[in-house]
Specification:
Elements: H1 3-26, H2 39-42, H3 47-57, E1 77-78, E2 85-87, E3 96-97, H4 99-118, E4 124-130, H5 135-142, E5 159-163, E6 168-169, H6 177-193, E7 197-202, E8 207-212
Parallel strand pairs: 2-4
Antiparallel strand pairs: 1-3, 4-5, 4-6, 5-8, 7-8
Length: 213
């Protein structure tokens, strides 16, 4: 084979190999399969379990009229990691948690966003629908359910609710509520297995009721 033709052959082969390698590198990874989770079975930690954990690491905010008027505020953190989550308009709670619970909430929000990327889903943020209940909130809720108000882990600044019916959309692309709930369920399942929290799947309130451990 003439030297010129041989050189051309090597040049062609080199270009093909280079282009093939580049295509493999730039090709996005395959979307991760969303786990099929039984929410009722996986997230069934009952109220007594949540309460025991809340009393061990939290503060008894139901003993005061308003958390902002008491030195208890010094033990709490304002939840304001708005890159990780959105806080709903709160009517029966205030946006404060003990540091351990605040850290857990931020981790849930960020892990949820990372998981959406892994599943090739558009970006969303979780929405926090209920946080700390003070004495004022206990009285308000007591008019509806006199038995449940004082026996809630929400009164110890260790517990928050994340709605699974609504998510904060961050782009024009959309994902179904079912897929978003399933991805959030994956995140909560992993944290629960790590011993980081207790979780109850609430049907009536359409939320995950989460208590830090």
């Amino acid at each position: 084979m003439p030297l010129l033709a041989l050189a051309a052959l090597f040049l062609f082969a080199g270009c093909s190999c280079s282009e093939g390698y580049k295509a493999r590198v730039e090709k996005p990874e395959k979307a991760r399969r969303i786990a099929n989770i039984s929410f009722k079975r996986e997230f069934n930690d009952m109220n007594d379990t949540h309460l025991a954990a809340a009393r061990s690491i939290g503060v008894a905010a139901h003993d005061i009229e308003n958390v902002l008027e008491n030195e208890i505020i010094e033990k709490l953190e304002l939840i304001d990691d708005y890159e990780a989550y959105e806080v709903d308009k709160l009517t029966h709670s205030v946006p404060y948690l003990v540091p351990r619970a605040s850290e857990l909430l931020s981790e849930i929000g960020r892990s949820f966003q990372d998981s959406l990327v892994a599943h090739h889903l558009p970006p969303y943020k979780v929405i926090v629908s209920s946080v700390l209940r003070t004495g004022k909130h206990v009285k308000m809720l007591g008019k509806r359910n006199i038995n449940a108000s004082k026996n809630s882990a929400h009164c110890y600044a260790t517990t928050f609710d994340i709605t699974y019916k609504r998510f904060h959309q961050l782009s024009s692309d959309e994902a179904s509520q079912g897929k978003l709930k399933a991805v959030l369920g994956e995140v909560l399942r992993d944290l629960k297995k790590q011993g980081r929290c207790y979780v109850k799947h609430e049907v009536k309130q359409a939320c995950f009721h989460i208590t830090a451990r």
